[in-house]
Amino acid sequence: MSFLFGCADGRFIHVERDRATAGLIEDALAVAEEVQEAARNTPEYPDRCRIKHHSGVTPGERQDTALVKTDNALARQHRQTDICAAWFDDWKAGIEGGPQ
């Protein structure tokens, strides 16, 4: 059979390459459709994740008081970041079919 390929001037190779390319295109389109469907089903980002925390420090305030206020605001922001990251991780795991 291999002697036929030498006489075909590469026609069979081109046909097989075109078939393979068509298959890849179909696979890529299927993946693109899945991604679009997932994007359509994306939940709204929780409002609580958009909150920005401020220390409330005012000019002339004592440094120890300002430090406590700033530390408390930073702790609130970190808790919020952890909650929002967990929300996103749960959502992403659901999309990927992984453990939640």
Question: Could you characterize the architecture of this molecule?
Answer:
This protein is mostly helical and 100 residues long. It folds into 2 domains: 1-42; 45-100, no CATH class. 70% of the residues lie in helices and 0% in strands. The chain has 3 helices and no strands. The chain has helices at residues 2-7, 11-40, 63-96. The longest helix is centred in the C-terminal third of the chain and has 34 residues, at 63-96. The model has no long low-confidence stretch (mean pLDDT 81).
Question: Which helices and strands appear, and what pairs or packs with what?
Answer:
Blueprint: H1 2-7, H2 11-40, H3 63-96
Quick overview of this protein structure:
By secondary structure, the chain is mainly α.
Q: Tell me the overall shape.
A: rod-shaped
- How do the helices and strands follow one another from N- to C-terminus? HHH
- How many helices in DSSP terms? 3
Question: What is the beta-strand fraction?
Answer: under 5%
Main sheet attributes: strand count, strand direction, barrel closure: none
- Give me the oligomer status: single chain
Any idea what the radius of gyration is? 29 Å
Tell how many strands the DSSP assignment holds.
Answer: 0
Report the helical percentage.
Answer: over 70%
- Mean pLDDT level: 81
Descriptive terms for the model:
rod-shaped, 0% strand, 70% helix, mainly alpha, 100 residues
